[in-house]
């Protein structure tokens, strides 16, 4: 994972931006391919990555209305706004998961985060918010991998710092409201050393993937360290229930569903390729779009740049200032022009953020129309976002304050989870 | 490691032999380089590998008479026959280990075996016999790594079989007489999953070694699996005492001494290169020559070919038949010729084996002289070897019979060892 929960952090990579400017590309998508892998996401469109093209390129399937309706039918719950609005837009084998679920054959969820710093921003919450919803509506267990080993391998950080970030990030994750009886959170650095079964699955994957393959999938080169080269097996292993004998009470064939940002798909394409060869079911996937930086859908959101996003530690005042000052606007330069021509919500970050966080569909649609028609001004739109974010972040901070070290220990202790398989 | 205790199994590789025959090399060393790496040992000399050249090529140091005398002085014990006879012939930093030992700064021993089958032969015992002697004379702790993960990665074997072989091989190792209070034996598949500290050191090494480096050191290619590519870090980690916090009671700076066959040196050259960069002392090394196959010093000894060596399960009758039938002789074709011209002990496998296993220096020297002069016939020489091997193997079998599952468990449980550091 990158500096996000399976890739939510990074909308564009500086190096790639340079490459784009060298190639003198146009600022609107002119058929040029977006770059999407676990470490780089780059596009030159202000609307962000072209997700329909990505589905074709990755060979995944679109989450269409039919599938959303089916999830509603099988779960008996109104689909989450991320499904209703195409934020989770792509999948692999979700229909098969639902087929089995309807026949009383359940599944488990697996998601994760690469803990490269103590700071998490709202974008990092996307997969966790959605995963919690899936856990609730399907009543299923969940494992959350904190890849502190990966962050050590990729970043200029000590093992101790990466491990500390993992424990700090766990608190923010727990604050999302996961059920402790159905959720296991683990640090790779800890769990590898406390579960022989996990290491056995890592070695099994490592035997069935060549350097040629990871070079093709991840773009590794000969000058990469051998830790990076073998790491994909470590992100693969949690997709097999036999990696967690305590958690799943010895069940080795439980189907796995992985909600993650689409940039993590390479890991799981590899996992799905290996799975049948080592006797395990292929994990299914639900892919999300990327969360945009305040500066726009083609700029880089960085945990080290406090102004690139709303952080989970921001005060109401910081939120207000950041949105007003930094959120890229799709509005016009003057009020007169705006009233006359209207704003463009497709490139407006305040509107994009509302798409992620405002629950009411009708209200959101009205905002879209009013903004497009010019009735709603940029300042008014930003005010709505501020009033959505402030209570949300305050509530998160309250929840996090209530996460004790004891609770973290509980979530991170291997133990049987509650489930009905 | 190959199918031996750090490489003792494999004197020549079939593929390399083919290469030699294609290149139409002469059967005596004509300046051609021997091939020596953890998976291939190849020479075209009946005398075996040219070890003096290997020392120059590997950049290690010769164990000369001065060092042997010093080991005698520091340990207060007569040097082991493997030292007296140049079987352990090369080293790295052994003088530094002795300097520190004289100043009351002690060290620990690390050796290992790749458990690719249940069958072990006499050659496999060489490093263990020598390591036990070192443990006894220096009164120091010892860790023994069973690389069942490596065997799974390299061979067409299941994880379960490799792990089972590790436990079976542990019995033969324990039968060598190691002190349970000073010896920890571990399977990688088990220990990786029961020690976060071990995994942490593996990841540290993996961060500091590139694919380019392992390609250069081990000859890996792009079509090798990522498990092989990252494995060297797993053989490196036991050279750092912090990988064993229970064993060494948290001591992170204990110097390590590794007795092994010279073909394992590439692993530890890499380890020594990485050590200072991750804050650990470089391990010191003692290198042994290879144990020859019955068919001669340039043929392959294989656990799957029962006639290529004396196995630890052979009966006295099997030993007699194998030596008489298969041991390559340096004697002449007829008794008359032999009496007249004498035999050549340098290419005679029976004599080579006696060099490894006969304790009495004077007796061995007399045999050498009598064989060279023609007084001693091949049949008589072989009889001496048979009479040396039969009681040795019988005693080993008795010792092994007394190794209970309980004892195996004791040796393989992480626990504080007795030592005075």
From TrEMBL, chains A, B:
What EC number(s) is this enzyme filed under? 6.1.1.2
The protein's matches in Pfam families, at most eight in alphabetical order, are given as: tRNA-synt_1b
Return the InterPro entries for the record: aa-tRNA-synth_I_CS, aa-tRNA-synth_Ic, Rossmann-like_a/b/a_fold, Trp-tRNA-ligase
Offer one example of a GO biological process linked to this entry. Answer: tryptophanyl-tRNA aminoacylation
* GO cellular component term of the entry, any: cytoplasm
CDD domains given in the database record: TrpRS_core
Q: Which UniProt keywords apply?
A: Aminoacyl-tRNA synthetase, ATP-binding, Ligase, Nucleotide-binding, Protein biosynthesis
Q: Name one GO molecular function term.
A: tryptophan-tRNA ligase activity
Q: Report the family membership.
A: Belongs to the class-I aminoacyl-tRNA synthetase family.
**Name of the protein this chain belongs to:** Tryptophan--tRNA ligase, cytoplasmic
> What organism is the protein native to?
Gadus morhua (Atlantic cod)
């Amino acid at each position: 994972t990158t500096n996000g929960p399976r890739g939510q952090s990074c909308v564009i990579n500086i190096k790639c931006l340079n490459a784009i400017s060298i190639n003198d590309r146009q600022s609107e998508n002119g058929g040029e391919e977006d770059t999407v892998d676990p470490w780089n996401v780059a596009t030159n469109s202000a609307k962000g990555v072209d997700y329909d093209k990505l589905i074709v390129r990755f060979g995944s399937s679109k989450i269409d209305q039919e599938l959303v309706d089916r999830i509603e039918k099988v779960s008996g719950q109104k689909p989450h706004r991320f499904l209703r609005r195409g934020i989770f837009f792509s999948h692999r084998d979700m229909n098969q998961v639902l087929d089995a679920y309807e026949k009383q054959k359940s599944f488990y969820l697996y998601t994760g985060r690469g803990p490269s710093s103590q700071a998490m921003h709202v974008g990092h919450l996307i997969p966790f918010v959605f995963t919690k919803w899936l856990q609730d509506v399907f009543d299923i267990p969940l494992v959350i991998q904190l890849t502190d080993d990966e962050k050590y391998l990729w970043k200029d950080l000590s093992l101790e710092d990466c491990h500390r970030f993992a424990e700090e990030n766990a608190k923010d994750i727990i604050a999302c409201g996961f059920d402790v009886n159905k959720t296991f959170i683990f640090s790779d650095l800890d769990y590898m050393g406390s579960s022989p079964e996990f290491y056995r699955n890592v070695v099994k994957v490592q035997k069935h993937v060549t350097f040629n393959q990871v070079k093709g999938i991840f773009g590794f080169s000969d000058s990469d360290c051998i830790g990076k080269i073998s790491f994909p097996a470590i992100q693969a292993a949690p997709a097999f229930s036999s990696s967690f004998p305590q958690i799943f009470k010895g069940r080795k064939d439980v189907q796995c569903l992985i909600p993650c940002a689409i940039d993590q798909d390479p890991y799981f394409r590899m996992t799905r390729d290996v799975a049948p060869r080592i006797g395990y079911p292929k994990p299914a996937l639900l892919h999300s779009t990327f969360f945009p930086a305040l500066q726009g859908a083609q700029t880089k959101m960085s945990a080290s740049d406090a102004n690139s996003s709303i952080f989970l530690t921001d005060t109401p005042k910081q939120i207000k200032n950041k949105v007003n000052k930094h959120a890229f606007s799709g509005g016009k330069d003057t009020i007169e022009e705006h009233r006359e021509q209207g704003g463009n919500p497709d490139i407006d970050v305040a509107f994009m953020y509302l798409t992620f966080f405002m629950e009411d569909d009708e209200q959101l649609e009205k905002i879209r129309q009013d903004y497009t028609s010019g009735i709603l001004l940029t300042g008014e739109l930003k005010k709505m976002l501020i009033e959505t974010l402030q209570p949300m972040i305050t509530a998160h901070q309250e929840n996090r304050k209530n996460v004790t070290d004891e609770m973290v220990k509980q979530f991170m202790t291997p133990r049987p989870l509650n489930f009905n398989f």
